[in-house]
Design brief:
The chain has 98 residues and is mostly helical. The protein contains six helices and no strands. The termini are far apart.
């Protein structure tokens, strides 16, 4: 995503290390006891669990469809879910959404 590329450039330029969100997720994937979601991820997960489509979610969150698609993919990776039903069930079971 363009925002992530820009963030990476600034981070590396300031002498720090940078991992893309997807690389970070893959490294953390094996440890399901320490799942941390951002505010945006929780918001997305709530909307998914309410049955909203990606297009509806993009509109509600004022984001592009491709951004929502990327966030959804990251949530699936982070939680190890294979589909939306499993993602929703895991989110409820892990008390990630109310």
């Amino acid at each position: 995503m363009p925002e992530e590329i820009i963030e990476g450039i600034y981070t590396v330029a300031s002498g720090k290390r940078f991992l893309s969100e997807e690389a970070d997720l893959l490294l953390k994937k094996g440890n399901k006891t320490m799942i941390e979601l951002t505010r945006r991820e929780r918001e997305l997960l709530k909307l998914i669990s309410e049955g909203h489509t990606s297009i509806e979610i993009a509109d509600k969150m004022c984001l592009g469809f491709e951004t929502i698609r990327s966030y959804r993919k990251n949530l699936h990776l982070k939680l190890g879910a294979h589909n939306t039903a499993e993602l929703t069930k895991m989110a409820i079971d892990m008390k990630l959404i109310g």
